[in-house]
Amino acid sequence: MGSLQKLPNVSVLPLAATPGKSIGAAVAAVSSATRGKLDYLVNNAGTQCVVPMLDFDIKQAKDMFEFNVWGLLTVTQAFSPFILAAKETIVNMSSVAVYGSSKSAVAAISGGLLVELKPFGVNVVTVMVGAVQTKPFDNAPEHHLPPDSS
Description:
The protein is mostly helical. Helix content is about 45%, strand content about 10%. The protein is built from four helices and three strands; from the N terminus they run ααβαβαβ. The protein has a three-stranded parallel sheet, with helices on one face.
């Protein structure tokens, strides 16, 4: 995010995409700094585990889906008044088995959200990216393939 912070007219507010104080603090900061309007909401948070689907732990898959899908919805709801006031754009970052399925849900949600918000002048964009230079595993738990993995 360092390079984004150097851009003119760009403010970066990191937050945890789960219900709690982090979202509330970011909402308050945006409200104060923008007089209640937000040009772009970029939902870029996500967690992943690169394990073949047949070896994937179901609890981990559910946790990933919880964060990637419900976290996105939580953040979008929290910031929706600012986007609606500005009639601007929500950008939902998506990607590529189980991680991909949670991100496919993001794409489906984005399509439905576009239909719901377009009458209010709000755009919703889903960005489907391939491999990018990122540090997705810095905060991820370590995963091991089972001995009988194919």
